[in-house]
């Protein structure tokens, strides 16, 4: 989704901003812009499309050491140059970028800006026009900035330039991520540390309702009421190789490949010196104190949550519900006496999940976030955090975060089981190790998966993924992976559900990927394969060593059946990757999608 960068220092601001925006490209966007300021005023460059298009229109000869930049994912108004950020007030003195959604923008427009001719359809323009109105009415820029922020309802991360104060960037944050980075004779602003990791690893976290006056030498944080806040910087723990593609053609392929290593890292991270599974006492107490777990998540994380439910119920005997975060508010279940809300989110920024967190906090219920990003909004705002240790996931299509989520949920459920004096009946550490090896075997079979992708999907407009039990959850994820990056219409189904309607869509050559890794239900899913086969479908059965049958196209190495999703999803990820590649799709940045979905 939208991204913000800002720089104030002694070097060429244009290049630092453009490179910063390139680092944010993975989040998804449809237009971009930068504004740089020098003694001669502010120069504005905006374009629809990619950062490469923006680079083409930036005037190389403009010299400036201060600037702000933005990638926009359209919410209010179509993606075009006019709606792209930065936005300016009518006098062009103020230039502003904004992430988030201003809920009362229409009211503010009608009540405060009736006589101002707006040029864009965005909620953002209201902010910059209001600030200008208050400055021209006699306030200082800082006062007008604070006054405007106090009037806004909704979420925002903001960076603003004032032509008359070219040595300052005005910054603010509320419910949208924003950081200030510190350097020698420069400071930066970024919605994600990754964007400015090129110049610094020292960042200061901003809290909701704070604004910051950033100059080359100084960073002054204050509340909207003027109280000064002092906060120590922290060192961003990013490994530069984690955020580079290296020799890989796409981040998605790199991240698929990283899954065995991520599983091994998780085994290490959640083991104590005695080789036993371990998480901090408070987190474990929170899980053990619950009489029911409510998992809240979206997309791929929701699919991981479905597997997590099986773990909490089968390993620990804790009743567990899984809810799509955007739907939770409409179907708020009757809660148990001692609920625990578990938020699963790779990014930790998903607005749909956050609104549930805000609501359940108001009701006084405990929360735990399982996320890949330490310090993310969901992590900061929930009572407990368990990290995925998957390393930055850049491709929009989530792969290694999914397997990491499943492994971590398995560990939490096993610990809960142990705390209740139960046993899960197998050695999870050992079996996760076996699953990591099996995952390695699967990522090494790329050529074969590419061939299958070609055979099954080259000419397809649609595809079906079916499974039963745990395999059903994986089929949902397989379908999501394929549709989001290749644009082939794909649906995941419980095998038994097909005959209740969807089988009508099966015709000659329709590809059906059938998961058959669970012995107890394997005969039934094979029955479904026969049913669709009789109607012309072309089926690819994905089974497991030990229960495979002749003709199965993919046989994953034997792993504990409860851990099969960690391995069976890999061929589906690879098949989707190659389908998208062969169709010439932008694998890492599929159309209309964003990595971090920060609007509801
Ligand atoms: O960051 P989150 O895990 O909260 O994101 C949730 C979904 O937006 C995400 O999983 C999405 O479905 C993926 N792009 C799918 O690959």
UniProtKB/TrEMBL annotation:
PROSITE patterns: GATASE_TYPE_2, SIS
Catalysed reactions listed for this entry: D-fructose 6-phosphate + L-glutamine = D-glucosamine 6-phosphate + L-glutamate
Pfam families: GATase_6, SIS
Enzyme Commission identifier(s): 2.6.1.16
A cellular-component GO term for this protein: cytosol
Active site: 2 (nucleophile), 595 (for fru-6p isomerization activity)
Annotated protein name in UniProt: Glutamine--fructose-6-phosphate aminotransferase [isomerizing]
Originating organism: Bhargavaea beijingensis
């Amino acid at each position: 989704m939208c991204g913000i960068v800002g720089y104030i220092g002694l070097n060429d601001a244009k290049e630092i901003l453009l490179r910063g925006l390139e680092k944010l490209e993975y989040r998804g966007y449809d237009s971009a812009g930068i504004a740089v300021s020098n003694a001669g005023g502010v120069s504005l460059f905006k374009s629809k499309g990619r950062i490469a298009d923006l680079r083409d229109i930036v005037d190389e000869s403009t010299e400036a050491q201060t600037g702000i930049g933005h990638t926009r994912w359209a919410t209010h108004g179509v993606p075009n140059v006019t709606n792209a950020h930065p936005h300016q007030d009518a006098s062009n003195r103020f230039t502003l970028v904004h992430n988030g959604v201003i809920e009362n923008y229409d009211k503010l427009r009608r009540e405060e800006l009736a006589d101002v001719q707006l040029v864009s359809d965005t909620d953002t323009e209201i902010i910059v026009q209001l600030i200008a109105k208050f400055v021209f009415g006699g306030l200082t820029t800082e006062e007008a900035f604070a006054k405007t922020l106090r009037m806004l309802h909704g979420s925002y991360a903001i960076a603003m330039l004032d032509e008359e104060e070219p040595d300052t960037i005005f910054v603010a944050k509320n419910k949208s991520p924003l950081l200030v980075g510190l350097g020698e004779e420069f400071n930066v602003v970024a919605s994600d540390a990754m964007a400015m990791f090129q110049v610094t690893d020292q960042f200061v976290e901003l809290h909701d309702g704070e604004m910051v006056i950033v100059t080359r030498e100084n960073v002054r944080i204050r509340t909207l009421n003027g109280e000064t806040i002092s906060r120590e910087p922290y060192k961003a723990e990013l490994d530069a190789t984690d955020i580079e593609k290296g020799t890989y053609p796409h981040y998605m392929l790199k991240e698929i490949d990283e899954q065995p290593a991520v599983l091994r890292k998780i085994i290490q991270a959640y083991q104590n010196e005695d080789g036993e599974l371990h998480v901090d006492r408070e987190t474990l107490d929170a899980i053990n104190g619950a009489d029911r777990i409510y998992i809240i998540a979206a997309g791929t994380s929701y699919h991981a949550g479905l597997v997590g439910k099986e773990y909490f119920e089968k390993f620990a005997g804790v009743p567990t519900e899984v809810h799509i975060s955007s739907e939770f508010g409409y179907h708020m279940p009757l809660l148990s006496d001692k609920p625990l809300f578990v938020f699963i989110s790779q990014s930790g920024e998903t607005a749909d999940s956050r609104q549930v967190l805000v609501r359940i906090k108001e009701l006084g219920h405990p929360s735990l976030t399982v996320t890949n990003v330490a310090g993310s909004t969901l992590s900061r705002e929930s009572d407990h955090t368990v990290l995925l240790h998957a390393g930055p996931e850049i491709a929009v299509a989530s792969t290694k975060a999914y397997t990491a989520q499943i492994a971590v949920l398995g560990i939490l459920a096993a610990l809960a089981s142990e705390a209740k004096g139960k046993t899960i009946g197998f050695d999870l550490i050992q079996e996760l190790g076996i699953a990591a090896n099996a995952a390695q075997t699967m990522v090494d079979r790329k050529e074969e998966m590419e061939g299958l992708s070609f055979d099954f999907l080259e000419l397809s407009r649609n595809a079906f993924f079916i499974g039963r039990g745990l395999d059903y959850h994986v089929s949902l994820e397989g379908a999501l992976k394929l549709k989001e990056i290749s644009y082939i219409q794909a649906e995941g189904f419980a095998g038994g559900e097909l005959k209740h309607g969807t089988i009508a869509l099966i015709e000659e050559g329709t590809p059906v990927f059938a998961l058959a890794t669970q012995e107890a239900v394997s005969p039934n899913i094979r029955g479904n394969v026969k049913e669709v086969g009789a109607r012309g479908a072309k089926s690819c059965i994905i089974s497991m060593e030990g229960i495979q049958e002749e003709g199965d196209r993919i046989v994953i190495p034997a792993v504990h059946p409860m851990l099969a999703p960690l391995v069976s999803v890999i061929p589906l990820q690879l098949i989707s990757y190659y389908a998208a590649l062969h169709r010439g799709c932008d694998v890492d940045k599929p159309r209309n999608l964003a990595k971090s979905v920060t609007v509801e």
